[in-house]
Every structure is written in structure tokens, then in C-alpha cells.
Amino acid sequence: MAKPKVAFYWCASCGGCEETVVDLNEDLLKVADAVDIVFWPVALDFKRKDVEALGDGEIAVSFINGAIRTEEQEEMVKLLRTKSGLVVAFGSCAHLGGIPGLGNFWTRDTIFQRVYQEVPTVENPEGTLPQEKIAVDVGELTLPQFYDTVKTLDQSIPVDYYLPGCPPPPDLIMNAVNAILKGELPEKGAVLAPDKALCDTCPRAEKKPEKISIKEIKRPHEIELDPEKCFLEQGIICLGPVTRSGCGERCIKANMPCRGCFGPVDGVVDQGAKGLSMIASILGVEGEEKMAEEEVKKLVNGLEDPAGTFYRFSLPASLLRRRRIE
Ligand code: SF4
Ligand code: SF4
What is the 225 CA–ligand 1 centroid distance (Å)? Predict the structure, then answer.
């Protein structure tokens, strides 16, 4: 019997999602044995024309990581959508926009100016910027359009399932692969991870006091972090209450707060807004006593980079999607 065809593709991402496939270790051999990989640019020498030559829907599943930043990425994911029965948004960037999505705090022009003209290590006396078309002796060279706004995968094409995480952990990947092979998938649109908050599985939750009040916001490098205590109790912003579980509490176990890479649980539209409201509800509240407004202001000012903290992985998927720049 013919094995199901599988494709992997990489859009705007750091490459960590590709690494995590290798992190499957010996399970990778089982996957390679059970499926026929027909496209995986980072590892195998297939070309776009090989995908174009396949019939519509012939690929059983395409795992696509990375956000959509360029015209080429958008073209490729549209092609893969046509050729695939299922499309899985693989990792935070495809799911929510991820770290590349923080580019939505800027514009294409301000990013180009910074990267190609202002960075101290760049030598570019003529201030040349990338051009989409340029005439050279042998003809015209082209570059794909660099979009002004980073998109999540499902803002470009319909997505069947989401594998969350920066990157998704190997056990969740294997569960997803096995579910696909056995045809035991949940309803379309599902996130293939538990639908409960990270706090529910956090090893520090047991000792977490019922009521927490933050009287001073700290950053992780500013204090000696207690490896047992809830981060919020220590005045450190932790997005565990508004983030989906399933990562194995990776950051918490490394004594770092959760930054939200798994995205929200089902039903939450805007993870950042939910996080802000969670923090607002415990800021400066001490028992029944309320802090003076001035004190609260001082406290809030101690929160460095609130937009980057609460929307670190989810800005393109948020209600606002990007910063509005005149
Ligand atoms: S807020 Fe963070 S540290 Fe505290 S219980 Fe939740 S996940 Fe754990
Ligand atoms: S603890 Fe939070 S940021 Fe860290 S891997 Fe898990 S979900 Fe992602």
C-alpha cells in the first residue's frame, strides 16, 4: 500500500521548528518509515516544480512552520494548500505570528532602514535597500515582495490543525503524527494540545497562594528567583494563567516565567489582552486594601515593554494585529 505523502515547509521563522523534527530522535525513523516525505527544503533536495507536479490533495498532510512575511511564502503555502488534504500550522509563528510577528510593531520601511542602514555593524555608504526588481547585465533579478504586515498561516490559507509551541515538543508532534496515521484526529480547527492553562500543570501551582498581589514588578535578572515559588508571587510577569499547557512546563523548570508561546486556551480571542487583564486584576491589590493611584502608576511604570511582554508570540493573531503608524 502506498504510504501517505507528507511535506514540511519553512516560512518566516528561526528554524527551531525544523530542529524539533530532528529532536524526534529515533522516532524520526519511525515517521520516515510510515510516510513518504515529498517536500522538505531544509533537508531534502525537492524543488517547487516537484510539488507543482503532484495532484491536488495528493499530499496527505503539510506541516508548515513560520509566519507569512513575503510574497514567496504566501505563494508556496497556497500551492501546498491546494496539493494537501490537511495543513497543520506547526509552531508558534505559523499559529500566532510568533517572534517574527513582533515586526508588526514597525513597518517594512522602518525595518529596512534599521537593518540595512542604521545597525552599527552594517557598512552601506550608499544606503542601498533591497529592491524587488533590478536590471543587471544578464537580465532582470527579482526578489519576492516583503509585506508590511506579518500574517499567521491561517490569515493566508485555511488551516486544519495547529501544533503550538516555540517549538512544538516532540511528544506532541508524535501524538499528532500518530493521530493522522490512524485517522483519529479531533474536529478541524483544533489545537493539538491540552485545553487547559499552564498553571493547571505547573509544579509551582501547589504552593501558589490563593490570592496574589503584585506590589512591585521585577524582571527575572533583577532578583534571585526562588525555584519553588510561583513567579507572580515574586513580582515576575508569568503568562501561565493565560497560556495553553502541553509544553512540559519547559521555561518554568528552567526557572524562567512563561512567555506564552503555546497561545491561549480555546475560546480566548486575544491572549495579550487576557494577560493584561489578569495582571491588572492582581496589581497593587493587597487584601481588601487598595493602593493609592500614584503608587499603582509607579508600579505599572515598572513594567518594561508591556506590548512585547503580553504579545510576544501573538501580535499578528491579536485583535489589533499590528501597531498603527501614521
Ligand atoms: S503563574 Fe507561572 S509560575 Fe505561577 S503557577 Fe502559573 S505557570 Fe506556574
Ligand atoms: S513555559 Fe510558556 S513560553 Fe515556555 S515553552 Fe511552555 S508555553 Fe512556551
Answer: 13
Bond prior to 167 in cis (omega within 30° of 0): yes
pTM flag (> 0.85)? yes
Counting ligands in written order, which one lies closest to the CA of residue 260? 2
Residue 312 Cβ contacting ligand 2 at under 6 Å: no
Q: Which of 33-37, 65-69, 322-326 has the lowest mean pLDDT?
A: 322-326
pLDDT above 90 (res 112) = yes
- For residue 326, pLDDT over 90 is answered with no
Residue among 258, 265, 279, 281 to mutate when testing ligand 1 (max atoms within 8 A of CB): 258
